[in-house]
């Protein structure tokens, strides 16, 4: 259970924290020539699977002209940011219309609501969005009896991990185990007995 909680809440990841669309002042606006309203576009942008290779905030951009069905693959990034789900749908724009937008990407852990992403010095029209940084979407585990040779006193642990594609399940599991170990090391250092006793010998 502890490992599952770490997988779902404590791994680092990247997400969009805010978006600014030219000509849009608030999330209840509509954009001429765009099928989706701003609220739906924001919802779709929250579905981006973003991988950031730096700790600093990064700006990614959209600059599209219709007619087009715009996907995550149309977002302009540099080498520091990768959009993993490039076929993720964002919106549809009609012929004769265009849309420009900038988005801020940050690298953190867990979940931050839109209110926590608001900045006092942000330009007018900047819309803060909820950020889900956790790259792990789902974790299931099952413990079953197992036999090794003639000995049936063992258990088999099966773990199912589903991610957003920015990290592979094996890496997510290993990183989660490391997070747990780092936290538990605080307790093993409390006494010499805990530090010096080998508990893994058969």
TrEMBL record:
InterPro entries xrefs: DNA-dir_RNA_pol_insert, DNA-dir_RNA_pol_RpoA/D/Rpb3, DNA-dir_RpoA, RBP11-like, RNApol_insert_sf
Q: Which domain of life is it from?
A: Bacteria
Pfam families xrefs = RNA_pol_A_bac (PF01000), RNA_pol_L (PF01193)
Q: Give the GO molecular function terms.
A: DNA binding; DNA-directed RNA polymerase activity; protein dimerization activity
Describe the location of the DNA-directed RNA polymerase RpoA/D/Rpb3-type domain by residue ranges.
Answer: 1-190
Biological-process GO terms, alphabetical: DNA-templated transcription
Assigned EC number:
2.7.7.6
Which chemical reaction does it catalyze? RNA(n) + a ribonucleoside 5'-triphosphate = RNA(n+1) + diphosphate
Q: Which keywords does UniProt give here?
A: DNA-directed RNA polymerase, Nucleotidyltransferase, Transcription, Transferase
Q: Which SUPFAM superfamilies match?
A: Insert subdomain of RNA polymerase alpha subunit, RBP11-like subunits of RNA polymerase
Q: Which GO terms describe its cellular component?
A: cytoplasm; DNA-directed RNA polymerase complex
Q: Which residues form the signal peptide?
A: none
Per the record, the similarity remark reads:
Belongs to the RNA polymerase alpha chain family.
Q: Which NCBIfam families match?
A: rpoA
Name under which the protein is recorded: DNA-directed RNA polymerase subunit alpha
């Amino acid at each position: 259970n502890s490992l599952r909680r770490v997988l779902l809440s404590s791994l680092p990841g990247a997400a969009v924290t805010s978006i600014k669309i030219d000509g849009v002042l608030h999330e209840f606006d509509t954009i001429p020539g765009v099928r989706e309203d701003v609220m739906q576009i924001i919802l779709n942008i929250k579905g981006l699977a973003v991988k950031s290779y730096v700790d600093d905030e990064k700006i990614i951009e959209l600059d599209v002209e219709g007619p087009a069905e715009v996907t995550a693959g149309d977002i302009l990034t540099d080498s520091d940011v990768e959009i993993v789900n490039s076929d993720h749908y964002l919106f549809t724009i009609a012929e004769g219309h265009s849309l420009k937008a900038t988005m801020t990407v940050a690298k953190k852990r867990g979940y931050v609501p839109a209110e926590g992403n608001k900045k006092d010095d942000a330009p007018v029209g900047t819309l803060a969005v909820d950020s889900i940084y956790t790259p792990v979407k789902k974790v299931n585990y099952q413990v079953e009896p197992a036999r090794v040779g003639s000995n049936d006193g063992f258990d088999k642990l099966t773990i199912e991990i589903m991610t957003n594609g920015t990290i592979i399940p094996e890496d997510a599991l290993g990183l989660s185990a490391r997070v747990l170990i780092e936290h538990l090391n605080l307790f093993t250092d409390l006494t010499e007995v805990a530090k010096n006793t080998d508990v893994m010998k058969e």
